[in-house]
Design goal:
Structural class: alpha/beta
Number of strands: 10
Helix content: 40-55%
Largest sheet: 8 strands, mixed
CATH superfamily: HAD superfamily/HAD-like
Number of helices: 12
Length: about 280
């Protein structure tokens, strides 16, 4: 029998918000992001999330973020993520995604997260989920600091190519594999397998899924990962690793406040909007 895998995008597919946005407050509190950068990137990310993703927007966001992380100490980023991981990410995993992970594991398939976000975030999240492999964006470091250059960008066709490499290394038959994502930018990733599913799809992916007859699913129930995954997680094997990627967007509450004032969205209470002084 040939081996198979289930490939999961991370943001809005496995977890209920952007992992890049989720760590904004810890990075701000850790002194990696100044207030001006927080406001600029948070507002841009929030407006971007309303309109969906396309190649031009992703390229612009990538350029902003790589410029911002240049000079950051990589060890500090790892430390902040590890210290705040359970507090930040634990409540965000979709119950429906957790069910799928368990179903695929029970069927003997390897679980692989394929994300455009940075390894500093995605690998620890993968460990919490007990996944087998991680593919994500890797940035160049020199003397322990990010140079602003990207070694591997886990986006678009690059995701599909990384999946093909893993299939060759692991003996997967991609025709027997599964893939899940929410974004039209992951069309190559979904097209690479025999069993693609659009999860919480944006407008472009919904249209593409309907044209191709792919299943469309809604994930809506976040749960605690520690509650769902009580067994010790398996060690993660990094496929194409990554750097900090888009991990520097911050403070979603402020983005919403700015968007409301600009008339982009109706006013509504945003959970978790207060930041403790001195935290």
């Amino acid at each position: 029998m040939s081996r198979a895998a289930a490939f999961f995008d991370l943001d809005k597919t496995v977890i209920a918000k952007s992992s890049t946005l989720a760590f904004g407050r810890p990075f701000f509190n850790g002194g990696l992001i100044n207030r001006r950068a927080v406001l600029k990137t948070a507002y841009a990310q929030f407006v971007f999330s309303l309109a969906g993703a396309d190649a031009q927007q992703m390229d612009r966001l990538r350029a902003q973020l790589t410029a911002m992380v240049t000079g950051w100490d990589a060890a500090t980023v790892h430390e902040i993520v590890r210290e705040t991981l359970h507090e930040i990410v634990d409540p965000l995993v979709y119950a429906e995604a957790a069910d799928l992970v368990e179903e695929h594991r029970a069927a003997g398939r390897e679980i692989v997260i394929v994300s455009s976000s940075g390894a500093e975030m995605v690998e620890p999240i993968g460990e919490m989920l007990g996944v087998d492999r991680v593919v994500a964006t890797r940035m160049v470091t020199v003397d322990g600091r990010y140079t602003g250059e990207i070694d591997f960008y886990a986006y678009g066709e690059n995701k599909a190519e990384a999946m093909r490499q893993l299939a060759a290394e692991g003996g997967y038959d991609l025709a027997d594999c599964y893939a899940y994502s929410d974004s039209i930018t992951d069309l190559p990733m979904l097209s690479a397998v025999g069993h693609p599913t659009a999860v919480n799809p944006d407008r472009g992916l919904r249209k593409a899924a309907l044209q191709r007859g792919w299943p469309v699913r809604r994930f809506e129930r976040p749960v605690s990962m520690r509650a769902r995954f009580s067994v010790p997680p398996a060690p993660v094997v990094t496929g194409a690793a990554m750097g900090v990627g888009a991990a520097v967007v911050g403070l979603a509450w402020y983005a919403r406040h700015r968007a409301v004032r600009a008339g982009l969205v109706p006013e509504a209470p945003a959970p978790g909007r207060r930041r403790r002084r001195g935290a």
